[in-house]
Amino acid sequence: MSAVLQVEGLEVAYRTRGVRGRSVPVVHGVDFAIAPGETLALVGESGSGKSTIGNAILGLVPAAAGRIEIDGRDVTTMSRSARRGMARTVQAVFQNPYGSLNPWITVGQTLAEPLRIAGRSRPETSERLRWLLDRVYLPHDALDRYPSEFSGGQRQRVAIARAIALDPKLIVCDEPTSALDVLTQAGVLSLLRELQDELGISYLFITHDLAAVREFAARVCVLERGRIVETGRSEEVCDNPQHPYTRELVAAAPVPDPVLQRERRELRLAAERRGAASS
Amino acid sequence: MTVAPISDGRVRTGRIRTNGLAVGALAFVALVVLAVALAPVLSPYGVNKQDLVRALEGPSASHVLGTDSLGRDVLSRLLWGGQPTLLGVLVALIVFVVVGVVLGVLAGTLGGWFDALVSGIADILMSLPGVVLIFAVLAIFNQELTPAMIALGLLGSGSLIRVVRATVIGVREELFVSAAIVSGLGPVRLMARHILPATFAPVIIQASLFAGAALAVQSGLGFLSLGVHPPDPTWGSIVGEAAANLAKAPWLLFVSGGTITLVSLALALVGDGLRDVSAARRRSDGGARTPVRPVAATRPAGAPAQEGVVLSVQQLEISFGERVVVRGVSFDLRPGEILGLVGESGSGKTISTLATLGLLPANASITGGRILIGSDDVTGADDRGFEGIRGRRVGLISQEPMVALDPLFTVGSQLMEVLRYSTSLPASQRRGRAIELLTRVHLPDPAGVLRKFPHELSGGMAQRVAIAVALAGDPELLIADEPTTALDVTVQAGILDLLRELRAERNLAVLFVTHDLAVVADICDRVIVMQNGAIVESGSAEELFANPQAAYTRELLASTPSLVRAS
After folding, report:
1. Across chain A, what does the average pLDDT equal?
2. Domain count, chain A
3. Which residues cross the membrane (chain B) (predicted)?
């Protein structure tokens, strides 16, 4: 089966502000692919370029070099209007559910927007809206309410409903749970998993949290300063990290078990002391 | 899967809540505009009808607002005079809004050289001496008011250009705009639906403020007899005539000046009211909270402070008005102990922590129980009551170290400031002590860090500086409110290592507030789990993780993802 997303040699650069803005490369030659119905995680710390890669795939920042193929079509060379047509294929769920919904319009208007642009009729749209709310377990009266009336978890459900409105093949999830409480996080991840089983969506799951990667993604790419340093099955990368940076990440992440965590901490501190002594 | 019901308490209060004063002001402005528009119908006398016998009379049944020096009816002249005055304001306002919004939106959207050009123009407009230019325009256009008012609108629009540009740039960074682009919105719809609506509130506010200013300028011109064609009145020219007769008929000035003052004031109030409504709309909780005065806490004859307890919270109850948000919370913290306070948002963990430092928001108060720091009862104490406690005996580090540090001052000046009031060190030794503190929190090149501004530090370095600040007064208790939540995992590990070291070295007690059970497992000796303002379970960390009793604790543990496969 061909990949839903194929990224080859992707480079992204930002221009610094001002008239004599320089171009600063932040992503250097990144390659990965996602199969239909698969979840791939991009994990890294701040400044690793993980969100930038997601934004390049979504067409929010231009690629400086390389190819991004979504569903077999190269989006890096597309015209702007053709790129807008890709909304049916690739969608997004962002980190901050408070910022990702327009506070001035109702949830119904937010959800109807992609449908209206895609040319759905009014009755089709209103039927679809009810279907979407059922899918994300929100009551139908949510349509006439404003985002401020919802909790963070409920807003994230609205954002997920918007993302699946056009039946996309791929959703870029940029830290979709990191602003949420633990129980709400678990609820959102299980909702995403359920939708994947039902609709066969692929996810690009961008996160800083290795524990969530192990829980949610089949495969993972570890990013360090704009480069992929390790790729593999999530469990293998978490249990047996190969690259020194991945090892550092795994060693630094605490686990919810005080006894086990003490052992891990002592191993990490011992390794750090050895490192300090040898250097 | 369960779904929390949507609370009805969050209904759009921002929209419904009306600011009585602003509504009254709006009604007043509308009434004045209507009356002025209907001057031909409403005015009891002709605008220039003289009756020299009855000059400079006070209010009477036949002349409600009295007469002027030529015996003309003041009410009629105010109504007629309002027409050129308010029309002039309207012309200026239209130019102000059109130029400001169009240039502001284009600059904010297009960016690049166009933005630089427009920003330059705005700067020039704002720096021009407006009144002088308006005089010049009046001279060129033979005392015609309309060109002068157009010039006023243009000159004023610099500030609106800036406000609109900044709003547009801000909104374009919002995630909902990214989401709309991803949804396939074209640039025109994006502008109409998501970007322009965000500029409404600031534009209306700026416009109402500008209208007041334009009225003042317009009146000033009339007062100087500029742009006036006697005998036809403007409000300004009526003030001018009143000033000329100030000694004989002071009443006149009250009427004419009062009209202008009231309308200006009303316009400002309308602007204020609109700003409140738009702010309430954007706030996520929407609700207007009424501040309550702190109720004197009922102090039970609770157990006296135990020896060796740094912090003792006994049967603490905290309320927002009638709503009790924390109830029956009790715990003790001993030297050298790290106590975790765990819960989700709304569990009351943060508000309980703020109470121990006397930092409750104005609308919250302690309604029961007590808080002891060492042997001092600080329940409901004010800032003076906390003197000698905050900084000296209790230090605080929070989630956002960047927020805790003042961006305008160097690390050195902030640290030395804290050393000045929380220690008795002489000035000559403070710098040495500051370097010592920065060294203690493992910052490389401490002397260099002293000279840095907060924005020059990474998140992890800033948190280390915040810890150094908290340690400056050599406290026995450190309150750490989600200190690693905003940090990368490798940086988090370093900060937690540092806290453990400080505990071992100074026998420091730490109250560690977090929502992250993995962090709790790493750093805490004892754990308190809170839900809905009450403690549901507490115990040693090992005991609680191995054998959780409360259903809620079990649910939390089950929902926390682990990097390591459970054995």
Report:
1. 92
2. 3
3. 20-42, 86-110, 116-141, 148-169, 204-229, 249-274
Residue among A46, A60, A254 minimizing CB distance to B522: A254
Boundaries of domain holding A108? 90-167
| Residues in chain B, total | 567
CA distance A97 to B499: 32
d(CA B366, CA B385): 15
What pLDDT, in 10s, does the model give residues B192-204?
A: 888 888 888 889 8
Which residue matches tokens 């009922």?
A: B298
Beta strands in B378-456 (DSSP E): 394-397
Higher pLDDT among residues B148 and B382, named by residue:
B148
Partner residue opposite B176 with nearest CB, options A81, A100, A117:
A100
- Given a contact cutoff of 8 angstroms between Cβ atoms, the answer to whether B74 and B255 are in contact is yes
Is 50 exceeded by the pLDDT of residue B435? yes
The domain spanning residue A60 has which CATH number? 3.40.50.300
Taking CB atoms and an 8 Å limit, are A149 and B3 in contact across chains? no
Structure tokens, B247: 């000694």
Angle, helices A122-135 vs A107-117, to 10°: value is 120
For residue B302, give the amino acid letter: G
Closest chain B C-alpha to A164 CA, distance in angstroms: 10
In chain A, % of residues over pLDDT 70: 97
Compute the distance between CA of residue A204 and CA of residue A220 in angstroms, rounded to an integer: 10
Q: What is the ipTM of this complex?
A: 0.89
Structure tokens at B186: 């074209």
Beta pairing partners, A12: A27
Tallying the residues shown for chain A, one arrives at 279
Minimal CA separation from A118 to chain B, in Å: 8
pTM score, whole prediction:
0.80
Contact between chains at B6 and A98 (C-beta distance less than 8 A): no
By C-alpha distance, which of B293, B496, B478, B267 is closest to B382?
B293
In a domain, A186, yes or no: no
Show which of residues 148-187 on chain A sit within 8 Å of chain B, judged by CB atoms: 148-154, 159, 162, 165-166, 181-187
Domain B336-364+374-559 grouped into CATH 3.30.565.10:
no
What tokens appear for A273 in the block? 């002391």
Q: Do domains B17-46+65-282 and B336-364+374-559 have the same CATH topology?
A: no
3 state SS of B337: coil
Cβ atoms of residues A97 and A178 within 8 Å:
no
Query: Does B250 touch chain A if contact means CB atoms closer than 8 Å?
Result: no
Q: Which residue of B has its CA nearest to A135?
A: B1
Q: Which class in CATH covers the domain with range B17-46+65-282?
A: mainly alpha
Structure tokens at B284: 């996520």
* Cβ neighbours of B492 in A, within 8 Å: 252, 254
C-alpha dihedral (B463, B465, B470, B476), degrees to nearest 10: 90
When comparing pLDDT for B190 and A32, which is higher? A32
Q: Do the chains contact at A19 and B546, CB–CB below 8 Å?
A: no
Q: Same structural domain for residues A55 and A117?
A: no
Residue with tokens 């642009």: A117
For B203-212, write each residue's pLDDT tens digit. 988 998 899 9
Kindly give, in sequence order, each residue whose CB lies less than 8 Å from that of residue B104, ignoring residues fewer than 6 positions away: B118, B160, B161, B162, B163, B164, B165, B167, B168, B199
* Residue ranges covered by each domain of chain B: 17-46+65-282, 336-364+374-559
